[in-house]
Write a structure and sequence with these properties.
The protein is 73% helix and 6% strand. It is mainly alpha-helical and 555 residues long.
Length: 555
Amino acid sequence: MNKVLGIFGLLIFVCLFTTILNDSFVGQGNLNNITRWSALFGILSIGVSFVIITGGIDLSIGSVVGLVACLLPMLVVDRGYSPLASIAIVLACSAGIGLLHGLLITKLDLQPFVVTLCGLLFYRGFARWLTDDQTLGFGQSYDNGLRLLATGKPASWATMMAIGGLGMTIVGLWRAYRMPLRKLDNPLAQQLLRWSLPAVGLFVAVVGSSRFWFGWTTAPGPVLLPLGEYQVRGMLVLAAEGGAELPALIMRYAATVMFVPALIVFVVSAFKHHAKKVTLPLSAVALTMALLLASLFYLVPIFREAAPSDTWRVNSMLVSGSTLRTAMMLIEFVIVALAMGSIGWLIQAGSAASPISKAIAFPMIILGVLSLIGQTDMATTMVPTPMLLMIGLAVVASVFLNRTVYGRYLLALGSNEEAARYSGIKTERMVLLAYVLCSLAAGLGGILFALDINSVQPSGFGNFYELYAIAAAVLGGCSLRGGEGNILGVVIGAAVMRVLYNAINILGISTKLEFAIIGLVILAGVIVDVLVKRMIAKRALAASQNNGALSTTAA
């Protein structure tokens, strides 16, 4: 959970930093673009996470995406196959590719790196030969049919919040009544831990449903799936006038009003139990927030006014507008990073200092995030279909990994393959399963990418996609040594990658620095993760030594 919170904090940091420098980042069109592409890369990242959990690697994802993206328009447009049959064929090809990789690795004992690297080269070359290196697409004939799988917008984020909040409430109530709770000396903290999840879920559900408080009208929605002569259509629900703005207003004001008392209780309780542990991080938060406010009044206006072609005079020196913008951006980057780091430090220190602070930390974080979201158009933005597919895939993958015996087998295989084999786990079958799942996810991603872009160039389509997927999985908590992974973290990691790419374009940074900046941010995230791990390990070792010394003294 610490890893998930860490990568989530990184996502908030990048969004906040970009919004401060350019408020067009939170525009409705840009938010839709970010969510759609984050979902597409999230699907790839979920697939590769299964392979990484087993201790393997798959470098052929981008080429599989390119091959599938070429096969689909060939079957649908050139060969005249039905969309459903074409999708089934390309998914079967993807599963076959994963099965081939697994067999080569398990039966011939080849290294996954070598097998998938050869696949990267072969599938790319085969796609170019198969299409004669010609650009493919669907034209405009399938805009209201097949392409809606990638371009459709069947629901709003407010509706998704209502559904998600209701789910959180049900799960929280089930856990409160059925699952055993940890023994705590403080009964108030016990009750807060018990009811925080359903309470937060209920609030989120209320926020999402507020869009329809003034009433609504229904109409036939867009085509979701063409079935021969018939079409499966969605239902278009239109909120009454004034209702569309309600979710954002409630998040902006109600969440902020509840966040402030929660923060006060958090800090006061932590001070009451262990003042020394909280004083330094709280001072850091106050200082960095003061710096952030000062930068909003002095640095950000300069950044927005300095056109790249202008020349500015700074202390008798002539500085180009692009240089000044870069300097202001770097300073703001450092200030926002310090502010986010100090907030994370305060949350960690306060949670460790007091059981009440630990119990209230989760709802406090959710309220703070909702308050930030309320400043955007997210409440009225439509959810792209790939996001719904990614959410469904993430839920299934999370249940499979954490709630089934086969998911436990995959984790055990990655932790120690030999021990897993001796314990009776059929390790070869698990490796085959992991690579088949990875290739199936790549095939699904290839279908959606092809439908979204509608212009497939075999020589370059899908290039470097495997690196984005692997980086997102590693950022999200998957260890390259295997045996460790979290689907929620992987999804957030994919969002971080796309938000970074979008921020580079929004802020006017040269695209030549794109990979350099993404690489530095990923490296920084991994370094921080390693340092935090070492710090936690040292604290655990010191605590065990102190407990041992106390027991020896008592004896």
